[in-house]
Amino acid sequence: MSDRYTHLGSLRLQPKSLDANALLVDDTSGSAMLTVSTAGAVTLGSTLAVTGTSTFTGASTFTGDVTVTGTVLGDLKVYNLTNTDDVRTVTAAESGGIFILDTSGGKVDITLPAVAAGLHYTFIIKNATTESDITATAAILKGGIFQQADTNEDNYISLAGTTITMAAAAGVGDWVELIGGATNFYVKGQSSVQSKWSVA
Q: Do residues 162 and 200 make contact, with C-beta atoms less than 8 angstroms apart?
């Protein structure tokens, strides 16, 4: 007697008429392996192994850990900021971005988003003629930078607090990197000019 499924070895293809899905592939125990809804959404009930190049067009959502073997290729996000930006609010969507700060025409102040694990920003000084700040939502900046301009002073500056200040005449190419954890942004960086970075 037919069970109304199409059988392919140990797999069963369920016809649309049995439920709301356009296609359901399961094993003989009834454990769903692949579901295609009538709206076109695809759900996998097991591990997906892909060999070769994969292209995702549009938004893709991955729940759980994603392991990549090889190189992830994509456009590097670089933002050139000038004083016309005045106060620039950085977004979570800009995570991974490199921000070039040109203060030749005035200060460029940065406001960070709420901290979240995986957020990652790099700020590089292009022209430091005006003081500029990087401000978090609270005292959640932890870490510091190394400075190397002479051998007579402490070469590590703690930048633990709420606002990092880059003073006028900081070095061109000085940089600071912020990496988001669960509750803090962790700070590292380097300065070529003594005592031009501070925190409050």
A: yes
Q: What's the rounded Cα separation, in Å, for the pair 159 and 189?
A: 10
* Model confidence, pTM: 0.65
Q: Indicate the domain borders of the chain.
A: 1-69, 78-199
Taking the alpha carbons of 7, 10, 11, 17 in that order, is the dihedral positive or negative? positive
pLDDT digits over 74-95, tens only?
Answer: 667 999 998 876 789 999 999 9
CA distance 37 to 40: 5
Copy the structure tokens of residue 108: 């460029």
107's tokens: 């200060």
**φ, ψ for residue 199 (rounded to 5)?**
-140, 150
DSSP letter for each residue of 44-94: ESS-----S-----S-----S-----S-------EEEE-GGGSEEE--GGG
